[in-house]
Automatic annotation (TrEMBL):
Domain Periplasmic copper-binding protein NosD beta helix as annotated: residue spans: 383-549
Pathway: Protein modification; protein ubiquitination
InterPro entries given in the database record: N2O_reductase_NosL, NosD_dom, Para_beta_helix_rpt-2, PbH1, Pectin_lyas_fold, Pectin_lyase_fold/virulence, SCF-Subunits/Alg-Epimerases
SMART domains noted in UniProt: PbH1
Keyword Isomerase: no
The protein's name in its UniProt record: Parallel beta-helix repeat protein
Region: Disordered, residue numbers: 614-637
Amino acid sequence: MRPALTTVQVFALLAVALSTLVFAASFAVDTTSARPEPVAIDNTVQRGVTAADEQIARNRSISVPRAQVFYSQYRYVVSYVGIGQAVTALTEPGHEQQFGYPLAVYVSDYSDRPVRCGDDGSLRTATPPDWVEANQAHYVVDGSARVPSGPAVVPFADRDDAAAFTETCGGRIIDWETLKTYSFDLKQAAAVREQVGPRRSDADATVQAARQHRNRPVSVEVGTDAPTVQAAVDAAPPNTTVVVPAGTYNEQVMIDKPLTLSGPGATLDGGGNGTVVTVTADRVGVTGFEITGIGNTTVGDPTQSNDSAWDATVTTAYGNSDAAVTGWNASGLYVANLSVETPASGVVLRRTPGAVVENVTVNGTADWQDGFMGVIGMHGPIVVQDSVFNGGRDGVYLHRADGTAVRNNTFRDNRFGVHLMYTSRSLVADNVARGQEYAGVVVMTNPVANAIVGNDVRHSGSGVMLAGSRSYIAHNVVVDTTQAMSTNADRSLYEHNVLYGNDIGVRASTVVPSNIVTENDFIANDRHAISGPGPLRVYTHDGRGNYWSGAYDLTGGTGPVLAQSYSPTDSVDRRLHQTDAAVVLRAAPSVRGLRALRGTTPGFRRGSIVDRAPLADPANPETVRRLRNETSMEGAA
């Protein structure tokens, strides 16, 4: 039974609802003013660029064509990095309903500029482009000009300038109306959903290829054929196995040829000075060891790096961490069946495409601030699976590791379970995270097309926190966190997640509300959802909304969805699952008037979420039933 509100509390809620109605009426945008002029990019909300692509463009002096759009019912100017991004946004279904019609669209103008495409096709110009109205520009498409994200569409105010550009960079000239009929392959979130199965299959194939390193013929046995592990490695022919019998070996090992180092029951003790096993060759296997005595250096010296890349500082600082096993420029590395005690990192992989880490236990520091990463993956796709990471800073940290799969792992008491930086098109699936200080899964630096599916995060600071765009977040379970999920990512699909018993279920964070949020279950959260600045967010798709515990009190509904809309950010609705008085207050005539107004005009209210077709029953009934049973058992205990 919900606690009843006092009369004073009821009137206070009603006052809040009425004040919101007054605010909503004052949020209209004046669309009769003079045509807006282009503004500085820093004064816009930017969309369509990953942080990695932005850094690459800046570091290589690549010019990226942009568009900026003024909408009739959206108070921010939106800039799109890449003309294709703008065209896709402006022509996608429901876009005008959400933002209003475009008052003005401007694109970069490369006329009267010494613009060229270099030997690598990168678009460059000595001076920044100006602006031209989109429908007045001439567009060069299908040429050799490129930007970090792919082929470039290059606009010109003067058709002769566009023609001159095609003479050196190829392509053909089209107008704005023709350009809007183009289909730009931007890997929308629904397409990422279809890629989950193939990504699993790709990871399976990578694992099977790496596992071949387990079955090489034995060539050298330590103690019988060579006195030390390093001596055995030096003596072994390529593509064979060095066997290390049970016992403790106080040494560090360097592997510079394709072979397998196998030591079930053996311990490698590095003496507390640096990395224990270093691999610099392709197709190496390291299996079956307990590894201790790892050094305590967690940060390299960036000043000692000769790397001029934009991310050299991060690569040097993180990639030089002491570890049980480090692989450098070594494809196909297989690391399996290890038990690691480390004050620094467990496994460090730099430019090791196709590397696999499986069945590894990494015990880091009790205080995450004293340690580093369980696995670091940099500059290449890897697979991390079926492993356990206890303590330390991050369980798995990825940096520019596009296409990585992190699956079926367990993370306990880290800062972050899985931490993606500058990493796109990856799969984070079916992991379990408990007691994370900040988050079970966190994705930063605006990557694209990541799939975060089937993870279970509990008793942590946050659950799943994403940035970037065009990602797929589904079938995750988040329980007992401060904030279960955020929608920092845009143009992403959030579906079939169960957010149970959290302080906040979801935080709608993006200023541009372009996500699809549907068929999720919000149950027993203190606040089902909160919303930041921006226009109205509609959490309904194809006639299906989400299940909100408490919204079942909305009467009159039959069938799979309720008859009335529900707003988890509304001052009354958000209390429906907490107090019976909120159900009575919702029926007040003034509140009904406010509800009729909500959602009828795009961009009408800031900081609001509305579900126009809330579900009558949970979308994920088996998961919800299991969680309710677990909660009941915990309460009984």
